């Protein structure tokens, strides 16, 4: 009876050890599965955000460089009145309304009148720059950059014969926490100078 009892205890100990090992392996597998799912969900989320930002940036840069904005004299609106209720879109393209031209051409965009180059209005660029400190959020919203944590940096650069010199930076620089940064470029002219308009849209 004593010998039988000893073997039974030994078998019970082995069974308990096997059970513990199996449970530990099961727990490890579950943890790995959750980590893989979490990684996949994060990757999918980043890809969706990147696609969203890319679309937003594309629309914003097109509006800025290919249109004069709505209204086309938005740069003349006072600081207090500069908001989404009075400015529906922002455009930097030059409009013949500002040049005292014949009435037959007034109101027409000059964005593609110079060998396909977009003609930009330096006064609109300067006005947008001056609004940056106090009206950054309004500018961002009017540009349609409204996603969670979405920010932007608009850079206007002139070609000096060897490289581009930055003449204006409007918006906020991507910080160390910027997980996604999408950049869109357009070429244009400012007073016959080749100009690069570069828009970065990024997510905090």
Describe what is shown at a glance.
The protein has 204 residues and is α+β, with helices and mostly antiparallel strands. Helices cover 42% and strands 23% of the residues.
Question: How would the blueprint of this fold be written?
Answer:
Layout: H1 2-66, E1 69-70, E2 89-90, E3 118-119, H2 122-142, E4 150-159, E5 164-171, E6 180-190, E7 193-203
Parallel strand pairs: 3-6
Antiparallel strand pairs: 1-2, 4-5, 4-7, 6-7
What is the string of helix and strand elements? Answer: HEEEHEEEE
The main β sheet shows up as:
5 strands, mixed
Overall number of strands: 7
Q: How many individual domains?
A: 1
Helix content: 40-55%
Task: Name the beta content range.
Answer: 15-25%
Rg, Å, rounded: 30 Å
Adjacency order of strands in the biggest sheet? 3-6-7-4-5
Distance between the termini: 73 Å
* Average of the residue pLDDT scores: 83
Dominant shape = elongated
| Class computed from helices, strands and strand pairing | alpha+beta
Count up the helices.
2
- Low-confidence stretches at least 5 residues in length (pLDDT < 50)? 98-112
What can you see in these coordinates?
- It is a single chain.
- By secondary structure, the protein is an alpha+beta fold.
- The chain has one domain.
- The protein contains 2 helices and 7 strands, in the order αβββαββββ.
- Strands 3-6-7-4-5 form a 5-stranded mixed sheet. A two-stranded antiparallel ribbon has the order 1-2.
- It is elongated, with a radius of gyration of 30 Å.
- The N and C termini lie far apart (73 Å).
- About 7% of the residues have low confidence.
């Amino acid at each position: 009876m004593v010998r039988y009892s000893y073997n039974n205890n030994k078998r019970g100990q082995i069974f308990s050890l096997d059970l513990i090992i199996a449970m530990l392996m099961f727990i490890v597998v579950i943890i790995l599965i959750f980590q893989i799912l979490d990684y996949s969900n994060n990757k999918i989320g980043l890809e969706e955000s990147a696609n969203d930002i890319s679309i937003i940036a594309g629309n914003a840069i097109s509006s800025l460089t290919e249109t004069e904005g709505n209204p086309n004299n938005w740069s003349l609106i006072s600081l207090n009145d500069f908001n989404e209720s009075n400015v529906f879109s922002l455009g930097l393209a030059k409009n013949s309304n500002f040049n005292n031209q014949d009435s037959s051409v007034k109101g027409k965009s000059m964005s593609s009148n110079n060998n396909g180059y977009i003609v930009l209005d330096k006064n609109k660029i300067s006005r947008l720059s001056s609004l940056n400190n106090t009206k950054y959020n309004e500018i961002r919203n009017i540009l349609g950059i409204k996603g969670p944590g979405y920010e932007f940096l608009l850079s206007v650069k002139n070609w000096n014969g060897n490289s581009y010199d930055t003449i204006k930076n409007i918006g906020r620089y991507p910080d160390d926490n910027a997980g996604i940064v999408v950049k869109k470029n357009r070429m244009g002219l400012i007073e016959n100078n080749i100009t690069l308009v570069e828009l970065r849209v990024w997510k905090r």
